[in-house]
Every structure is written in structure tokens, then in C-alpha cells.
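User: Okay, second chain of the day. Same drill as before: sequence in, C-alpha cells out.
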Amino acid sequence: MTIKELEEAVGMTRANIRFYEQEGLLSPARSANGYRDYSPEDAAALEKIKLLRRLHLDLNTLRRLQAGELTLAEALEKQLGQLGRDQSALDRARAVCAQLRAAGTEYQQLDAHPWLEELDRAPASERFAPPADELPPAPGHPWRRYFARMLDLALYGLPITAVEVLVLHLSPNLTSKAFIALLEGYLGFALMFLLEPLLLHYWGTTPGKLLFGIVLRDADGSPLSLSDARKRLSLLFSRGLGWGIPIYNLYRLYKSASLCSEGERNPWEWNASDGRAQRMDIPENTWRCFAFVGAQAACLAVVVLITLQGQLPPHRGELNEAKFYDNYNFYLRYFDLDARPLGPDGRPSAAEDGTGGFSMELFPSHSSQWTPLLTAGTVTGFQYRSEFTGSFFPLSYLNSPQSLGLLAYAGTLPGINCLNFKPKQWLDQISDEGWNYDVTYRGLRITQSARFANVENQSGAFVTAPDGQEGRLLLTFTVQAA
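Assistant: Same drill. C-alpha cells below.
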């Protein structure tokens, strides 16, 4: 039978039944799907337990009875003696109550000492109360707990994203790859294992749980030990989050939520040290669900700000040659372009085959260099000069170094920040201007002049040399304060 059927048959709550299972007084069989399958013998055993607990026999006595170490007659004989002592204590208490009432003494004038001596003449007793054989209620609320966990993971991921974008300057093309996303997830889990046991031990909650008002404690209300908090997290990671393995983690989340919805406990909701059930208090405030939406939106906003900040060059303010070249190489990596970085002389570093710069298969001869523009000894801009020899000159292809240099300089201008620096708007200033242009945009003058030799079709997006001949192109591009 199911646990619901067993509850109805025996007249005992699910929490009671689980308590006796935890205490080892009931061991139901498991069906093929892993669920408990209670038999009529289990129901009869529970009725025996219920009866003897009503007679105030302790749990250890019940275990000895089940193990055959003690006969029922011996257990009842011992209990009769205890109940007799309890009855004597109750009778003495009843008599003292009656005498105290007859004396008519008011509370303010009461002298308690002689009456305490009167009570102490009776045998000591624990004044048996009905046994509280019940586990803390199962937490339930799978969706609230899931959203709390997702918010925690989002928060753990924020510093990982910040390091990737602001420190390592990883290209967006790289961070979008599946294996990098998986690595980010496991780094977030590593941070979770570092911080969460401390949070649960000292405060009984995490940021996500706190938002939903969730507090986790031992059954008696004391904080979880660090050891139990760590083991709880290990079980949750393996059994609840499926080791973070894609697809499998969805299956584990489904199984955990199903168990939770049925009023059962998941494996991590028991202390590993003593086997006691943990207590999780979850208030049912609807406003907390809206607060969760706001918190997730705030996390997303932080990620957007980090991403926008990551578009700015590493060196801001006044530039020298080394800083400009470093900014240029930053954007080379950022856009994941197939090109050689600039060296300290402003020239592309040579590849193993002796070529440099962008892949120049179309150009048998190519040389280029960036140099600073100085005014009274102060750098006020940079100039790019490049000479090509070949049969075909495509404008969009040759614009790449200028684009990188433009962003490397524009991102350092006064008043530029992560909210108003839009790379596309800057690149639009040169992408549609043809071979020759002179543009001023946001305090920056951008110019380019192109000189051709032995070419035809000099207008449009590309230029060609006559068949079987080589043409020559000299480009001069500058960015400087207007």
C-alpha cells in the first residue's frame, strides 16, 4: 500500500510514519520504481508502536522488543513501576494544589519554599506527556526552492563573468561557445561549494533563500554544523543538480521536485552526522515571488553593465604609443580577428612565414605602421599608413585595421563610459565613407586618403588592376582630437 493508504489505515500522520522509519522501527520494502511499498505487516507493526507509545514506553524499549531482547511482559512490568512513581508524583502535586488553594494566599505574598519541600517528598517523575514522535514537516514548495537556488547560482556566476570580461578580456565569440559556458557553470558551482556551507552554518540561509524568507536549521532549531552543511551541498549537487551535467540535471531536478511535491524529503534534507531531519521554514508571501523577478532583473542588468564595460579599451584617458597599441591588440582579441598584433614599433608582428598583419594572400607586397601624432610633445592622435601591391583591393577588407585603431582611440575620449560608448556607431563613421573621407564625430576627426597607381574602377567598394598586372595602393588614415 502507499503511504497515504497507510496513514488512513493506522490513523497516523506521514510525519509520524517517517519518524519511526528514521528510528529503525519500520522498514518497508521498495517497489521496482524505488517507492516504498507498505504491507499489512507494516500496518500491524505501526499499530503496536502506536499502542505502546501511548503507554509511554520509550523508543529504545520498542527496539529491544522488536529485536527479541526483551519480552512484552518484562517491558510492561518495568513500565508499571514507572507509571506508579508517576502516579505518586501526580497525587502529591494534586494534594499540594488543593492545600495551596485552601490557604488562600495571594501570589504577591506566596512563600514558595515550604511548598517546594512538600513536593520533593514525592518520587521524582518526568510527568509523562503524550510522545511527540514526529519529524519536522517536510519543506514542500519545490518552485520557491528552485527559484532560490537559481538566484544563488546567478549570483555565484556574476564574479565569474566579471573576471572573464574585465580581467581576462575574453572574446564574445569565445564566451558563447558551449564548452566555455559549461566551464563557467562549474566555476560557479566551485564558488557555491566555497561560500554556501559558511552561509548555512552562520546564518541558516543564502541570498536566494533569504529573498524567499527560507531559513534552514537542525530539527531542534540549532544551526547546521559546517560538516553537515558541506555534506548537504554535496548530496544536493549530485542528486538534485545531477552533477551539473546537461540534460541529466533536468531529470534530477524533475525527480527532486516530484519527491518534494509528494511531501517527502530529498536525501540531502537529513543530517549526515546523526541522521536527523533538517527543518526548513518557508513563508508563503506572494510578494517574495515578485521580489525574485526584480532580483533576477537586477542580475541581468549587472551582466549587461559588465558586458558594456568590457567593450571599453583597457587604457583610458591620456594615451602614449604603448597604451594605444595595447588597446588596438585588445580589440583584435575582442573581435577574434585572424591577424597579428601590433608590436612596440606600431607594426604588425611577423608570423612564422614572414608575413604580418591581416591575412594578405591577395597582396604580394604589403607594409603598414601606426605612428603617434604629436602637438607640442603631446600625443593628439594616431596615423596609420599602409602600402599594398596586388591585383584586387576590397574596401571592407582593408578597413579592418582602421576600425581597430578608431575604437582603440575613441574609447579613451573624455566623457566616454560604458553606457554611451557604442562601437557600432563609431564604426559606421568609416564603413560607408568609401576610400577617401574626412569625418568629425563626438570630438574626434577621422580622415582617410587613398592613392592608387596602375588600377582601374577606382570608385566603389573594390578596385582592380589591369589583367596580368599589379596595382599599388597607399592608404593614410588618421584619428585625432578635432
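The first strand starts at residue 29 and ends at 30.

User: Thanks, on to the next one.
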